[in-house]
Design brief:
The protein is mostly helical. It is built from six helices and no strands.
């Protein structure tokens, strides 16, 4: 009959600590971020900020914190996945570097109405209203329900999304939201990066 050696608690903790520190033991896995635009988000404000700052360390961290907060609040209000919306903002603005038709003072974080030099896109008075318009526009793409929005409609392009619900996931935004056929894959790649935070 074999005997099982007994370990003292401090010795056991020491062994487990060593295994954890060397990477042999993991305390769980990273939860995947949904690619469905109307699924609940899982990332909190701090996680969104850490993800963003890793991509653009020169950004104004206070502004990024505000935007992360607005995306979470506005997403919850309208039933839109703020993880997907925040990542889309990152892609559309080049992590707030801008550089195309849309400029920072427009508070247009998703390229709403940006077509060419004569149609540079929509402008909004504040950061929060810009985020709200973005979330509302995603709502038109993601849902078929004819429900009243929680907040006053400020997305002037909301009514032009036809058919409603044509993009339930980030993948269907390719060729609809953006002409780029790789648009959904680009968002998917950014969401995979976000999962690490």
């Amino acid at each position: 009959m074999s005997r099982v050696k007994s370990f003292s608690i401090p010795a056991l903790l020491l062994v487990l600590s060593a295994l954890f520190l060397t990477g042999c033991v993991s305390l769980g896995h990273r939860q995947p971020v949904s690619r469905n635009l109307s699924d609940p988000a899982i990332k909190n404000q701090n996680q969104l900020v850490k993800f963003f700052m890793k991509q653009n360390p020169e950004a104004d961290k206070k502004q990024v914190k505000r935007l992360a907060k607005y995306y979470i609040e506005e997403g919850l209000a309208e039933g839109i996945n703020s993880d997907c919306a925040f990542v889309q903002m990152c892609l559309e603005t080049g992590f707030l570097r801008f550089g195309n038709l849309v400029t920072p003072e427009m508070h247009n974080y998703c390229g709403l109405g940006a077509i060419d030099e004569n149609n540079r896109g929509e402008s909004f008075e504040t950061e929060q209203l810009g985020v709200r318009a973005h979330i509302q526009h995603l709502h038109a793409y993601a849902t078929t329900e004819d429900i009243q929005l929680a907040n006053e409609l400020i997305d002037r392009r909301y009514k032009w999304v036809q058919p409603r619900g044509k993009a339930p996931t980030v993948f269907e935004l390719a060729g609809t939201w953006a002409a780029d056929r790789e648009y959904g894959n680009k968002l998917d790649t950014l969401l995979s990066r976000l999962e690490q935070f």
